[in-house]
Amino acid sequence: MTTLEHSAYDTGRAGFGPIGFAGRALRLFNHAMRTRSDRAALRAMPDHLLKDMGITRSGIDYYTSVRYATPDTDVTDIRTIG
User: Fold this and answer.
1) CB-count burial class (<10 Å; 0-12, 13-18, 19+) for 35
2) Alpha-carbon distance 55 to 57, whole Å?
């Protein structure tokens, strides 16, 4: 007979209370502001730099969208490049 070891993860409903809601709202606001800042930085770049990165002016919104964004663990801040 096998025994189950205790899981390192909590299986409760953590994060569903008011504090969890506030944390999610803060993360969403932070992500929206970072996305807006990244888009502004890309729009301020000259065309030849965008071309070097393989981005067109019409593709800036696409490349900074949520579905194309990289995970937060491996994010490069485009404002610090160069």
Assistant:
1) middle
2) 7
Q: How far apart are the first and last CA of the chain?
A: 60
DSSP state, residue 3: -
Structure tokens, 14: 């953590």
Residue whose entry in the numeric block shows the structure tokens 């301020």: 44
pLDDT tens digits, residue range 14-46? 556 778 888 889 999 998 899 999 999 999 999
Task: Compute how many other C-beta atoms are within 10 angstroms of the C-beta atom of residue 45.
Answer: 18
The pTM of this model reads: 0.57
